[in-house]
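pasting GH15-like domain-containing protein for the record, 248 residues
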Amino acid sequence: MWLRTDQWLRTGRQVQPALWARLAGLADTAEQAWRQPDQGIWEVRSEGRAFTYSAGMCQVALDRAAAIGERLGLPGRTTAWRASADRLRRVILEESWDEDAQTLSAHLDGGGVLDASLLALPLRQVMPADHPRMAATTTAIAKHLSAGDGLLHRYLHRESSDGLSGDEGAFMLCSFWLADNLTAQGRLDEAEELYASLCARTSPLGLLPEQIDATSGEFMGNFPQAFSHIGIIASGVNLARARAGART
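structre below
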């Protein structure tokens, strides 16, 4: 919904009162709920915890609601949302930071458990990709969650219980998130090399799966997978724009 609203605003159109009431309600809920335990983006079957990614998405709701209200002069708690968004950004950087591991972690209580969903935070503008703590986390994820040849696991089962048995393949979307972070950090050659390796994994029809067996290259999970195709498009656009900017 937030993306659609942003696209709507870019056309110069207005947000109608009924929609604004819904958006304001979502922002108010996010302001109160960000620390509540949940199952995170991956919908784990284990006990709920305060996931860093979930807190980040609450920050997005507050930030975008404030931006819409400010831009259009709409009634509401715009000033409070802006203050809460800024505070929540600081909280995420502080409370998810693991001093021993020197990385952000999957949960707000720290603990050093890495999760590839952390790579999505800069892509949603929760924090800059080149923030020292985020940059350190990106490097750690690329190494610790690597399945080889540019592929990434979402998390390691031996470290992060999800309530499911068995192992899984490398999750394609996570590798595109890594490429996006490298691009945003100005590491364009690395991003381009990774992106090319991922594109080379498409089927003869140019389709991608949800997961890949890192050993055999076999496709796993849903096929074709929309997440993976969103990733290949977004990463390609981001890289092309960065290359164009670097030439000017």
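Residues 1-95 form one domain.
The chain has a mean pLDDT of 90.
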